[in-house]
Write a structure and sequence with these properties.
- It contains four helices and five strands.
- The protein has 127 residues and is of the alpha/beta class.
- It has a five-stranded parallel beta sheet, with no helix packed on it.
- Strand 2, helix 3 and strand 3 form a beta-alpha-beta unit.
- Helix 1 runs parallel beside helix 2, helix 2 runs parallel beside helix 3 and helix 3 packs parallel to helix 4.
- It starts with a helix and ends with a strand.
Amino acid sequence: MEILICAALKHNTTLSELRLEGCGLRNEAICELCGGLKWCKLKKLDLRGNPFGVQGAKGLADVLKDHPTLEELDVWRCEEMSDDGVQYLMDAMMSNTKVKMLRLDEKYKPIVPQELLGRITFMSWYD
């Protein structure tokens, strides 16, 4: 499935939102997906509830650093991401101000730089 999505993203110029919530995407799948993300003009990407870890977050961060259109990324409930994965995303957001919103689990709030707090929505399991 991931390879088909990646190929479709490379050739799609009109897709603005992609929701892959709870699809079981792990590191390898996220990294493949990132290959397609570089070429598309997505504004919103919802990956919430997928079990990818640090490598997947690093792949996302590499795309996020200079993606020209992505405004929202949802990685809430991506439980295997860890502080290191979130740090990759924070670094990417520092260099790309087009990203207006990142959804994260509230447990990561202590590691988010003060200057990014206005661009991050913290979610809890009760939301």
